[in-house]
Amino acid sequence: MKAVILAGGSGSGLRAVTGGKPKVLLNICGKPFIERVITNLWRAGIKESIIVTDRPHDFDDLTVKLGKLMSFELRKQRKPEVVGAILEAREELRKSALLVYGDTLVPSEAYLLTLSTSIDSGYPTILIVPNEDVRLYGAVLVDGAGYVTEFHEKPKKMVEGAYAYGGVGVFNNDFLEVLENAGSLEEGINEYVKEGGKIRTTLWSGVWVDLGVPVNTLEAMYYIMVDEFKGTYISSKAKLASTAVIEGPVYIDEGATIDHYSIIRGPAYIGREALIGAHTFIRPYTDVESLVTVSSYSELAWSIISDRSTIGRGSFLGYSIVGEAATLEPGVTTKLLALPEEAGIKAIKIVMKRKPYYKAGAVIAAKSRVPAFTTLRPGSEWI
Amino acid sequence: MACGIIAVAASKGSLPKKLGAVIKESLKSLEYRGYDSVGYAVITEEGKIFLRKSKGMINAVAKKLGFELIDGLIGIGHTRWATHGSPSDVNSHPHLDCEGKIAVAHNGIIENWRELKEWLIRKGHVFRSETDTEVIPHLIEEFMKQGHGPYSAFKEAVNMLEGAYAIVALNTVAPDKVFMAKKTSPLVIGFGNGVNFVASDIPAFLKYTRKVLVLRDNEAGYVTSNNVVVERKSFNEGKAVGWTKVDYNGRVREVEWTPEMAMKGGYPHFMLKEIHEQPQAVASTLAGIKDSLEEITKIISKADRVILIGAGTSYHASYLGAIFLSNIGGISSNALISSEASWYRNSVREGDVIIAVSQSGETIDTLLAIREARKRGAYIIALSNVVDSAIPRESDYALYTRAGPEIGVAATKTFATQVTVLAVLSVKVGRLNGLLREREETTHLKALSNLPEIIKNVLSSHEGKAKTVSKGMKGKLSAFYLGRGYGLGLSMESALKLKEIAYIHAEAYSAGESKHGPIALVEEGFPVIFTAVNGIECDLIKSNVEEMRARYAWLLAVAPKEYLNKFGGVDVAIPMPSLPVTAAAVSYIVPHQLIAYYTAVAKGLDPDKPRNLAKTVTVV
After folding, report:
1. Last residue of a domain, one of A147, A178, A211
2. Which residue in the list B3, B101, B183, B273 is annotated as catalytic?
3. Which of A229, B140, B246, B614 has the smallest count of CB within 10 Å of its CB?
């Protein structure tokens, strides 16, 4: 069985963090996001895949690394939007290859479910996911028998009674012919359905993470840690000071150094050759990627620090994402308490003492430099 | 309704065990489609058809049918879920022609079977059963008499059929072929090594091959041990004009999944599938009880009192039924838990009507209770999902929900259909007793007949919310479900769902009683879920919501959308459509089912297989 993986786009909400690289290559807990997608495809019995992307060479390392799992073909996307990417692989999709959005992480069961439903029903099939707010994902309206009645690729407002589009599907010849003449996936699906074509849906109730806006990457990290970190692992090649405190599931990779009096409260990930300075406090759901330096007396909570970045002495970062090779000078702090209704920012909701708090940190662009003692507002971007 | 069929065409040595054992195994894996009667036919070495069939579940009748003893190279099998007529040996499939040379198993409904049967009887054919299927072997026989070869006769027969069908047929004239045809009902082919299969669904042969071809409507053909031929009926202006060969090679697919996944029909769990089948299940149930309504309404309206008994979910349906019958039907009625019913037996007498509610029709406590009541002269009505099971057999009258097989241990669609039947009955009884005006009756019945659409909308508009609620619920250790009247019945069922699949201690209580004890447990963040079906119930529980809010409980409310504001703000509001109480009592359970399901999934539990529980309880 073949899969077509759509891996184009730097992600409008994530461009600053990715620095123009495909967002699916963003490292989370030591691996590019898409690596987990590919592993799950392999678990579902996929042996061959076509990766469609506007930057094929960015994927060279990955395909070499994962070559043991399946064979890859990198194909350059020439026309824009999802429909452009889909049509690059129309031949494979015509033969019922599985279409997978590389920025959507689901367990292998969801892939098998989509395949089995399409074979059983004999119709093109898409995965749908219940979600209270479908605006970020694409909205699918479904009839009583589970067939698509309407599709909104980028809904501007709430669509009543809609499911989120799960980014997994199986198509057929008739549908692809309609799609070729349509300007977008939305037009293609709606046109096909209007002409009497049937598209089956399959409902997925388990874990589903879509890498859309920055807060999604923090959610993705959360799911990955909950799913993968069952205990503490410390590489024999890591250096751990005798006074460091490691609590809960923590993964410390090769060559990492944890200095004296630092506290790492898991789930947390410390990447290859990262340095955690003395007296630092790493709180749950923090992902420090490889070659990062976290200088002494800093505190990090629910954040992703991408490869080769530096966090200056005495900084505090929460609910934030730092792009690759960024430099935070000493004393940079984030304010977390957001009023998302006012500012229109996406935040993580936390309930304490019955009161909901919306926490959002900052997004710090790759290769940027934040001056000493800067205070970053909730939901702000530093470019 | 679903049946399961299987056909095997093997070459010598291609099967690891006897043909009978292979057929049994395949039927076993199709049991999720139906399981009240089973049968098979094989062509023996002497070139004769050997046929065995019986009512009952496969394991129960396997010995009697002697699956393990029968060998051969070609055979068909069938497992049935009776919807019309009772399951009996003679009505079980496969069916034969007059001379016992043609055997047919069928899934679906032949709509024009009466006309065909009359025509065949005029031609001298003798019928043994009352089923629609039996016309097919006789049709084939008739066309063979007219000079057609076996395949051509089969196609001619298929041309005569109207309705839905998936058919497999054996013919001793062509002892190496299984003939097949499909319209609407599912049929798939499995390509094995020296053996080919035809079945209703992929799990039937997944042990032997993963290469499958899904047949499309109006396709027919035959398989041998090494060859598969498929043809498509061509039409001209709606009339069948001929058959053209189909090149199916591009359609053959290799499947990777497990048999269990294939049975779930595109859902990750049976429970979610069954929750989503509720619109269909309620629609079938409404259509199915139409004919019985007049008679049963008369019986109930003459009763001195009605006692409804049930266990688990069926008790909760009974509880709602008792309120319906009292409130709408104007009949003195009570609901009892089956296992507690014996304490009340001395008061049971002639003139009482017992309604025994049991999904499986085999629940032992309920069965024992009706035996006792019957001895004392009560009139027994069974409400079951399985035709001719023990409880309906031992009752004076049997009513059936048509929910189809329910595999998930947590009852979902059977609850909705049970409550639907009891609601319709109560409305009819109320009208007959003069308690309801014609206009009121119409309002209730109209809403009830709209239930499929209503449930569908509730499902799609609340599934996302249920998933969000589950994130908060999964960390909780305990929860209250409060309501009054119908809201209390629904709370009881909702609490059971959360308990049994999400392993969260949940207690349903009358909202009015909550301050007489349970409220002592409530502290900050304690989940309290209120359910109310109309404005009256909302007014009644308003003060209870206040009490809980004052204790910082985590408040959820399922109530009609225009009354939700009476509660002055809750943490999670689940706005429901405004409906008459009858339709509300059926549809308001849906968000609760979803919350329980998603909470179980969020906790990483398998909602289909809760620990310590069995689907049917047949021991005291």
Report:
1. A211
2. B3
3. B614
Q: Which of A113, A131, A144 sits opposite B464 (nearest CB)?
A: A131
A147: which DSSP letter? B
> What is the C-alpha to C-alpha distance for residues B326 and B323, in angstroms, rounded to an integer?
5
Segment B418-463, tens digit of pLDDT: 999 999 999 999 999 999 999 999 999 999 999 999 999 999 999 9
Percent of chain A with pLDDT over 70: 96
The per-residue pLDDT of chain B, averaged, comes to 91
> Considering A178, A211, A244, which residue would you say is the last residue of a domain?
A211
Residue B104 identity:
V
Scanning B415-454 for CB atoms below 8 A from A yields 452-453
Same domain, A176 and A111: yes
Over residues A246-258, the mean pLDDT reads 95
| Strand ranges (E), B208-294 | 211-214, 219-223, 228-236, 239-245, 253-254
A204 in B contact zone (CB under 8 Å): yes
Signed CA dihedral, A303, A308, A309, A311: sign only: positive
Active site residue B98: no
Q: Map out the domains of chain B as residue ranges.
A: 4-263, 264-449, 460-613
User: Which CATH number fits the domain that encloses residue A71?
Assistant: 3.90.550.10
Hey, what CATH topology would domain B264-449 get? Answer: Rossmann fold (3.40.50)
What is the C-alpha separation between B78 and B96, in angstroms, rounded?
Answer: 13
Q: What is the mean pLDDT of residues A235-245?
A: 95
Q: What is each CA distance from B12 to B15, B26, B67, B171, in whole angstroms?
A: 8, 19, 18, 19
Which chain A residue has the Cα nearest residue B605? A206
Domain that holds residue A328: 215-382
Same fold yes or no, B4-263 and B264-449: no
Q: Does A329 touch chain B (CB under 8 A)?
A: no
Q: Which fold has domain B460-613?
A: Rossmann fold (3.40.50)
The CATH architecture to which B4-263 belongs is 4-Layer Sandwich (3.60)
Distance, in Å, from the CA atom of B102 to the CA atom of A365, rounded to the nearest integer, reads 76
- Indicate the number of domains in chain A: 2
Q: Is A352 part of the contact surface with chain B (CB cutoff 8 Å)? A: no
* Listed range (A220-224, B124-128, B260-264, B407-411) with the worst mean pLDDT: B260-264
> Which of residues 524 through 553 in chain B touch A, CB cutoff 8 A?
524-525, 552
Inter-chain CB proximity A163 and B266 less than 8 Å: no
At residue A10, the pLDDT reads 63
| Set of chain A residues whose Cβ sits within 8 Å of the Cβ of B250 | 95
Query: What is the C-alpha separation between A12 and A154, in angstroms, rounded?
Result: 13
Q: Is the pLDDT of residue B1 over 50?
A: no
Residue A226 with chain B: CB contacts under 8 Å: none
Residues A29 and A166 in one domain: yes
